[in-house]
Design brief:
alpha/beta, 726 residues, eight-stranded mixed sheet, 49% helix, transferase, Cellulose synthase-like protein G3
């Protein structure tokens, strides 16, 4: 049998437990951030009373007062949406935790479980090959037993340049990785230089640069499938991506037997390009990950896997052992599905203006969700227990009932799945031709037909955000997860540096999350019945937060037009109710400042987040919600939009100077431009009205709102004026 397993008997580790107070042999610790939690709950209570008073004022005046029904009704609707999203967000603040690990307390390397690394790429133009190879190189350099580590690269683009580059990267790794291990170099991806070894590393840089030139020259040639087909002298149908590459195991770690020492050993390296046909759905990245699960099942069958975006390289080789501090802890191991590391980007400028993630706030949200049985899966930089994708906790035999119906007719794959439960465990064999042929079958576009792949098995196909949605379903099944934020970033990625790419990426997220939130899997209905209310609220926030766009659109039109025509929407400054509105504004602003500063940010970071929040709310999020509506009425279909990771020098220069670049983002700029110009015109007209005899006390609230938006819009106007001049 070719069914194989890299399982190791590492014992129960019963003495190694996780607790609030670390012991001499503890693998990890968990500390509740008590001051932050207490302060958050106090603020939550005070803000709740202020928001309740504000809504009471709005609704009571709308029902019983003599106010303009249309303008007051729209502004009340927007404030109800704000209140709804704010309520969901409070679950993150209930019990924030911080975790630490002690990898030195792990058992010896011979007792560590095996680990697969999954890396996915799809387009060498949008995902530069050099960046992909950097990720592959860093994954091969993990501080983990090489005989228990396997690196898989899935290339959905089927690009010959990617295959060629992988061979070149492997050749370079044979010289570079032994050097890193010998001298303890941590930054093993070729991005940062160490002062201690700059001369030695310079030699390797020259080698790699020569290989980069080869890769780039090949990339310029722009291989088409037809050219690739002739090059390989094969007759492959035009509708088929070449599966022959599955037999190209770039490096088999069985060759390590002749290595002089452990420093010279490399892990198994496999390139996979699955079959894709226009007549068959290929399910985008989720389909690629499921194909990797099947292929790896018969080639290495490690119980754990690290999933990485192709541009997210390993910055700390000890990340795998840090994750194992949770996976091997008996207190977690029965129900733990994945360990999530933060997404941190190496190319963020100090003048970063495209921080659409509001990363300081997201750190606090991830830590807050970690305190209530599991954080969200970010899609990259997480160590996953494969078994979690097949069954519920403590029900290992569940997925082995009717295995052919669930997993397909592959006896080798079914044998490998039995090994995940500790049954029929086999030592790894040399990769045979029969194993390679079976791998081709498992990666074919017809294998999943009439199976449960993408439904109950593997990554879900119900949402284009496959990892986030699959993580949500895992929590619904009873699995848990943890979030580890170490001092040294374990993974570093490349973020978008121009407005167009940032907004396209955000629109994809908004569309996928809102669609999931409105589906039968909504966290407010389905989730509430499967997990705790607090955890459901957290997922509800992620899925419904983009509805902010509707409220922001109304807030960007109604108060401004009312200010222009002298229609009051807020109480007079001398009215006690004005203090309620002022309290809500100042309370929200102070909370944002606290989250930014406590996460290591500055006031400039806070101001940039305010600006990008306004921009994304009326552009990408709005288009994402509109895209969901189009799908529901049948006017659009699901479409995967690959984020462009290629760097343009002109855009990079503008980004580093903190300037907005709207080039190529015409579609997104229409609502933003209209709202900015509308606000400017209404502000000028409204101020003229006040100067000519208007009631300043009555219109102060709208005037302040319009001026605040105007100040936020100044960089946007700077970006629009040169474009208008052209």
């Amino acid at each position: 049998m070719a069914a194989i397993s890299l399982h190791s008997s590492y014992g129960l580790l019963s003495s190694r437990t996780s607790s609030m107070e670390p012991t001499a042999t503890s693998l990890n610790t968990c500390t509740v951030q008590q001051p932050r939690a207490a302060l958050g709950r106090l603020h939550m209570l005070l803000h709740f009373f202020a928001v309740s008073a504000l809504l009471y004022y709005r609704i009571s005046n709308l029902i019983h007062g003599s106010v303009p029904l249309l303008s007051w009704g729209l502004i009340t609707l927007s404030e109800l949406v704000f209140a709804f999203i704010w309520t969901l967000a409070q679950a993150f603040r209930w019990r924030p935790v911080v975790r630490t690990v002690a990898p030195e307390n792990l058992p010896g390397d011979e007792k560590l479980p095996a680990l697969d690394v999954f890396i996915c790429t799809a387009d060498p133009k949008k995902e530069p090959v050099v960046e992909v190879m950097n990720t592959v190189l860093s994954a091969m350099a993990l501080d983990y037993p090489t005989e228990k580590a396997v690196v898989y690269l899935s290339d959905d683009g089927g690009a010959a340049v990617t295959l060629y580059a992988m061979k070149e990267a492997c050749a370079f790794a044979r010289s570079w990785l032994p050097f890193c291990r010998k001298y303890g170099v941590k930054s093993r991806a070729l991005r940062h230089s160490s002062p201690l070894f700059v001369m030695m590393r310079g030699r390797f840089w020259r080698v790699m640069n020569s290989r980069r030139k080869k890769i780039k020259s090949s990339q310029i040639m722009n291989f088409s499938r037809e050219m690739w087909r002739r090059q390989l002298r094969l007759r492959i149908p035009w509708t088929t991506t070449a599966l022959l590459v599955l037999r190209l195991v770039i490096y088999d770690n069985k060759n390590n037997e002749g290595a002089k020492d452990d420093h010279s050993k490399l892990p198994l390296l496999v390139y996979m390009s699955r079959e894709k046909r226009p007549s068959r759905p290929h399910r985008f990245k989720a389909g690629a990950l499921n194909a990797l699960l099947r292929v790896s099942g018969i080639m290495s069958n490690a119980p754990y896997t690290l999933v990485l975006d192709c541009d997210m390289y390993c910055n700390d080789p000890t990340s795998a052992k840090q994750a194992m501090c949770f996976h091997l802890d008996p207190k977690f191991s029965d129900t733990l599905s994945f360990v999530q590391f933060p997404q941190i980007f190496y190319n963020i400028s100090k003048n970063d203006i495209y921080d659409g993630q509001a990363r300081s706030a997201y750190k606090t949200k991830y830590q807050g969700m970690d305190g209530i049985k599991g954080t969200v899966c970010a899609g990259t930089g997480y160590f996953l227990k494969k078994k979690a994708l097949y069954c519920s906790p403590n029900q290992e035999d569940e997925f082995l009932e009717e295995p052919e119906k669930n997993f397909g007719f592959s006896t080798k794959l079914i044998d490998s799945l039995q090994a995940l439960t500790g049954k029929n465990v086999r030592e790894r064999e040399n990769l045979s031709d029969a194993t390679i042929e079976e791998a081709k079958k498992l990666a074919s576009c017809t294998y999943e037909q009439n199976t449960r792949w993408g439904k109950d098995i593997g990554y879900s196909y119900d949402c284009l955000l496959e990892s986030t949605f699959t993580g949500y379903l895992l929590h619904c099944k009873g699995w848990t997860s943890v979030y580890l934020y170490p001092e040294r970033p374990c993974f570093l990625g490349c973020t978008t540096i121009d407005m167009k790419d940032a907004l396209i990426q955000l629109m994809k997220w908004a569309s996928g999350l809102v669609q999931a939130g409105l589906s039968k899997f909504s966290p407010l209905t389905y989730g509430m019945s499967k997990m705790s209310a607090l955890q459901s609220m957290c997922y509800g926030y992620f899925m419904f937060t983009h509805l902010f766009s509707i409220a922001c659109l109304l807030y960007g039109i109604v108060p401004q037009l009312s200010f222009l025509y002298g229609v009051p929407l807020y109480p007079k400054v001398t009215n006690p109710w004005f203090a309620v509105f002022a309290a809500v504004f100042l309370s929200s602003l102070s909370q944002h400042i606290y989250e930014v500063v406590s996460s290591g940010g500055s006031m400039r970071t806070m101001w940039n987040e305010q600006r990008i929040w306004m921009i994304k709310s009326v552009t990408a999020c709005l288009f994402g919600c509109f895209d969901v509506l189009m799908k529901y009425v049948g006017m659009a279909k699901a479409n995967f939009r690959l984020t462009n990771k290629a760097i343009d020098q002109e855009k990079l220069d503008k980004y580093e100077k903190g300037k907005f670049d709207f080039q190529g983002a015409k579609m997104f700029m229409i609502p933003l431009t209209v709202l900015v110009l509308l606000n400017l015109g209404c502000f000028i007209g409204g101020m003229k009205g006040l100067i000519s005899g208007g009631d300043v006390k009555e219109m102060f609230g709208q005037g302040f709102l319009s001026s605040y938006v105007l100040v936020l819009s100044l960089p946007i106007l700077e970006g629009l004026i040169p474009k208008i001049g052209k």
